[in-house]
Amino acid sequence: MSHIFPRNSRAALPMVARGEGVYLFDTDGKRYLDGSGGAAVSCLGHSDPDVTAAIKAQLDSVAFAHTGFFTSEPAERLADLLIEHAPHGIDRVYLVSGGSEAMEAALKLARQYFIETGQPGRHRVIARRQSYHGNTLGALATGGNMWRREPFAPLMIETSHIAPCYAYRGQAPGESEREYGQRVADELEEEILRLGPETVMAFVAEPVVGATAGAVPPVAGYFQRIREICDAYGVLLILDEVMCGMGRTGTLFACEQDGVAPDIVIIAKGLGAGYQPIGAMLCSGAIHDAIAAGSGAFLHGHTYMGHPVAAAAALAVLTRLTAGGLADRSRVMGERLNAALEAGFGQHPHVGDIRGRGLFRALEFVEDRETKRPFPPEKGLHKRLKAAAFEAGLICYPMGGTIDGRQGDHVLLAPPFILEDAHVDEIVDKLGTAIARSI
Ligand code: PMP
């Protein structure tokens, strides 16, 4: 009997034995191509020598020193390198241990900023229906994923949710992509006006939506309009790049491709690449300076923030992504993966949409391509796909429809950036087998 919970009650999980490049192996010697990097985590694959060497070297010097007493060289260098590559205006880094912690820090920083700048009425958060921002209480309240929220309602932070930017299902007949983007972005303005601008603190969104919808990129112009609206009403723009950041979409920060800079951006997953648990909240100099000039300190903190070993791992990862050119490789290999998915499944009667950016791709499944009708939820298609792919030796990240009951099942692919052409073929081949066995 295992004392670990939760456990998938229907199936005993295999025990992982080792990782090598894009592959994981279980204790029976079975090989799995990690086509989703777990959940878009393992961007460097599983046995990166630079990262493991950096971790060992840090352990040999000092494993832990509390940030209340010391700073550390890897934490300082990591923050410098992040800011060197960060969106315009982003100037400070707050290191935490994962995505949800980064989201909590972002929410509290935004709140403290408004309290200290004489706008204490600003406490409301607006996010989108198609979103996941973490499982801690503030992050859960922010996300628009109903089945995760409902069991814990009422949630303590007041949030409201507007439409996502999801062209495959939202764009009206005869409407251009740009018109669609403006229309759904304008919902933010309507919601701010409905709530009263003096009560709204922040708008939170993932630039490219991850787990809830499957690599949904915004249409051109959407985030620029969002930025304009936030500026017009003094609302902070918080971008959640926990899943889509750190090169996953082909640029280090996903928002670079949308021509906008946030006030706060959070990252995690790819930052530690699975070698260490680490996340970060990055904010503008303006926010930082307002708090520094006010009470002087951000009223927050965790024991393991800025952990030297985690920072050393992340510094090695970030060096590979930037100087090592791996974020660019995500873009190049992402195009190849997309072309192979189009060639393999573009005409498939049950594949409604193939989408994404960089090595962040998804297939959305439909019963009927014409009407885009999803499969009935009772079919549990995403669960069947996951199981069939796993059986065939492919790890992919599937999810059922969640938005307004209209979205189809999808499979998310987020393989390591070290992927080679032969691995692309293997993904498409095994996914084809899984689809054939599941539908
Ligand atoms: N935001 C997004 C967009 C995520 O995908 C996730 C994790 N799936 C989180 C936040 C929460 O991160 P963590 O699981 O590290 O707390």
What does this entry look like structurally?
With 439 residues, the chain is α/β, with parallel strands linked by helices. It has two domains: 16-48 and 325-438, Aspartate Aminotransferase, domain 1 (Alpha-Beta Complex), CATH 3.90.1150.10; 52-321, Aspartate Aminotransferase, domain 2 (3-Layer(aba) Sandwich), CATH 3.40.640. It has 14 helices and 15 strands. The protein has a seven-stranded mixed sheet, sandwiched between helices. It has a four-stranded mixed sheet with strand order 1-2-3-13. Strand 2 (23-26) and strand 3 form a beta hairpin. The model has no long low-confidence stretch (mean pLDDT 95). The structure holds 4'-deoxy-4'-aminopyridoxal-5'-phosphate. The site of 4'-deoxy-4'-aminopyridoxal-5'-phosphate has 15 residues, from helix 4. Its cofactor is pyridoxal 5'-phosphate. This is Adenosylmethionine-8-amino-7-oxononanoate aminotransferase. Belongs to the class-III pyridoxal-phosphate-dependent aminotransferase family.
